[in-house]
Amino acid sequence: xxxxxxxxxxxxxxxxxxGFKKKAGDKLRKSKxxxxxxxxxxxxxxxxLRDGEGYFVELDAEEYAHYLDQGVNGxxxxxxxQFSFRDKMPPISAIxxxxxxxGINPYAVQRSIYMKGIKPIxxxxxxxxxEEKHLLDYxxxxxxxxxxxxxxxxx
Length: 155
Known about the structure:
By secondary structure, the protein is mainly alpha-helical.
């Protein structure tokens, strides 16, 4: 049984972050929601951090990503989300550029979102679960890469 080096562990987490970014972006594109300006796709990031116990990953995206991922309960339609429209409608400033580009009344879109909510995509949550299952594969790949290319623990 081999010992996992610091460089191999870091490489495995780098592979994890790269896989997460690609797959979360693919799911978002496939949903055809949240991709109009490209900001949401560009905002999906992952940082590899280290503390006294080892490496961990911090994932980040536009704040709106969490609402798309988990959905938002509308005034009339429940989506099973922790987020809800209760007394306030979504900001028209967030809707207007998109609605104007489509020739749609932004106030009608705002009211529809308020009443029906936002259907969840789960592009962050499901991707995280899927990628966690591949962490051992990424570690094996990092170890194989180290054996073939001879990188050391100081990388």
